[in-house]
């Protein structure tokens, strides 16, 4: 009986219960991109920053293609700050910057 309990505790089900915080910044970045794309219906181009937040969650800056144009250097992109809780669930997001693809940071 004790052997069965220890086998259940170390099996694949336990691995699935890990939080985003325990899985690290890569998992948080992927979760933020998926959640944001589903809400705003624009494709994510990449992630600019990932950092831990004070509440054991993550703050991820996702770059999104908002207005595709030809030539591509004139397309409009935006940076969104996405906050996730410790389980990787989206808590809030906001657009923090909008810019032309060909523009350099000042």
Automatic annotation (TrEMBL):
Q: What is this protein called?
A: Gas vesicle protein
- Specify the species: Streptomyces violaceoruber
**Region entry Disordered, spans:** 1-28
Which biological process, per GO, is one annotated for this protein? gas vesicle organization
Q: Tell me the Pfam families matching this sequence.
A: GvpO (PF05800)
Please indicate which superkingdom the organism of origin belongs to.
Bacteria
